[in-house]
Amino acid sequence: MPVLAVNNRTVHYEDAGGVGTPVLALHGTFGRGTTFAAVADRLRPEYRLIAPDLRGHGLSAGGGEFGRDAFVADAAGFVTALGLEPALVIGHSLGGVTAYQLAARRPELVRALVIEDVGAVTDVPVVAQPVLDVTGWPRTFPDRLAAEDFFAASPAPDYFLESVVERADGQWELLFDPLDMMAVQQENVGIWWDDWLAAPQPILLLTATDSFLIPPEHAAEMVARRPGTELVTFDATGHWIHRQDPEAYAAAVRTFFESAG
């Protein structure tokens, strides 16, 4: 897994490789760059997916600030460090907010955007429960089975289990600090219409019929208020569209990027 220094922090990232057009992919809260693996496979050879572990997630450095400015600065630093500008950008959930804020605040760095299942408002009443309380989550598990049991009742067990790895002593460790994740979630809650409307690039908004994060009324308002926004809604999928239907997801992304030029 490649490593890059961005804003005095160590950032680990996944790189699908190849000679295709680079695409920056930003994951959601509790995730890591590996979450896009199935999509990366389906976008090759035309596109080369590059997916960092965001601050506090995966193998990247934790601690410090978790506000919106920090995530946007990291994304900007990552784009410029790898010479991706103007970049094609995919953002899921937390990464989606970061992506359209990057596009609005540093428009020269972004060519086109795919925003997956997150709104211009991430606060109540649009999102019924914008923060998941994880303060009591364990950092370690005695074995893999214990971790599987713990996450079995979660909405996406496989997604969370990607962030559980075996240590040298045989224990299984959660790669993120639950207190960091509380800060990440709380700082991501807000009304971000100004950023959504200011982004000048073409945007593809992906939503799901079973999403718990963005109701159809809010998605429709996002499209109506912002010219240059396309909307695709996936049937029988939830918040993690890129994992639940990677084939259709990749097809929609490819079609959009081809039209965006």
UniProtKB/TrEMBL annotation:
GO terms for molecular function: catalytic activity. It holds the Pfam family Abhydrolase_6. InterPro entries: AB_hydrolase_1 (IPR000073), AB_hydrolase_fold (IPR029058), Carboxylesterase_BioH (IPR050228), Epox_hydrolase-like (IPR000639). Gene3D superfamilies: alpha/beta hydrolase (3.40.50.1820). Residues 23-252 form the AB hydrolase-1 domain. This is Pimeloyl-ACP methyl ester carboxylesterase. The lineage of its organism: Bacteria, Bacillati, Actinomycetota, Actinomycetes, Propionibacteriales.
